[in-house]
Recover the amino acids of this structure.
């Protein structure tokens, strides 16, 4: 979704907003950030509206996902699931990692090996090498729950 340099810039921006450095952006973090920018009278409702876009705690993964949606638009979860189901004719809920990698690197918008590895870094892959694409769709649309704790 993003180049490595863009991710680094988002990480720096996240660090500037996460005032208490606990890895989660909260209302007080936003209030302090606005204060540093000279806007002192931000309404609670405005801050709550921003936080509610995250649909839960806003850690770095969620922060990145929110910017991805704003900048590129993200397909709804059911659209992504339907795309994965094309590669799962038996309806198992899994696609083979190696076969999927081959397709990603050889079809349409060809992925590089590095891009595939980045995508697979967050993908739930079982010991048999199968991707649980329903869980992956959730991660794509809602963020990685492992980083939310």
């Amino acid at each position: 979704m993003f180049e490595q340099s863009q991710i680094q810039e988002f990480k720096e921006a996240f660090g500037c907003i996460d005032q208490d450095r606990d890895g989660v952006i909260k209302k007080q973090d936003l209030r302090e950030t606005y204060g540093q920018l000279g806007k002192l009278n931000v309404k609670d409702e405005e801050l709550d509206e921003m936080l509610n876009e995250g649909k839960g705690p806003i850690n770095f993964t969620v922060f990145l996902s929110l910017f991805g949606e704003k900048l590129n638009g993200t397909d709804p979860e059911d659209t992504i699931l339907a795309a994965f189901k094309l590669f799962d004719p038996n309806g198992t809920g899994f696609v083979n990692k190696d076969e999927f990698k081959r397709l990603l690197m050889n079809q349409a918008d060809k992925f590089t090996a590095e891009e595939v590895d980045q995508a697979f870094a967050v993908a739930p892959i079982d010991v048999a090498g199968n991707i649980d694409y329903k869980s992956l769709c959730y991660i794509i649309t809602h963020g990685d729950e492992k980083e939310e704790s």
Summary: The CA atoms of residues 43 and 49 lie 10 Å apart. DSSP finds eight helices and two strands in the chain. The longest helix spans residues 4-17. The longest strand covers residues 94-96.
